[in-house]
Amino acid sequence: MNSIIQFLGNHIQMIYIILLSIFVGVEIISKIPSALHTPLMSGANAIHGVVIIGAIIVMGHADPNNIVALILGFLAVVLGTLNVVGGFVVTDRMLEMFKKKK
User: Fold this and answer.
1) Is residue 26 located within the same domain as residue 42?
2) Are residues 19 and 55 in the same domain?
3) Which stretches of the chain score pLDDT less than 50?
């Protein structure tokens, strides 16, 4: 318990920044009209390819004997890939709505 309190004390500014970013994000997203929500989210999902690159770099620098780091890196690559693919699928479906029907 003492180590948790010490960690919070040492990283209080980072915790404040995370909490502030959560509140700002919720406030911004709540003001977006629903018609724009899908295009913005599909674009944001596609940008998350940075997560995949970061996870691959972290896995490359991890100790081969550190199984936990390798498993977490693998999960980050898999979930980041699913997010990127989902973003492109949503974008494709959204663009299909605007094509002229034959």
Assistant:
1) no
2) no
3) none
* CA count, 13 A, side-chain hemisphere, 54: 9
- pTM equals 0.58
**Shared domain check, 18 and 64:** no
pLDDT of residue 21: 94
Other beta carbons within 10 angstroms of residue 59's beta carbon come to 16
Q: For tokens 């980041």, name the residue.
A: 80
pLDDT computed for residue 87 by the predictor: 79
Task: Supply the pLDDT for residue 83.
Answer: 84
Between CA 57 and CA 63 the distance in angstroms is 12
Same-domain pairing of 48 and 76 = yes
Cα angle 49-56-50, degrees, rounded to a multiple of 5: 20
Residue 72 structural domain: 35-102
Under DSSP, the state recorded for 11 is: T
> Same domain, yes or no, for 44 and 80?
yes
Distance of alpha carbon 76 from the chain centroid: 10
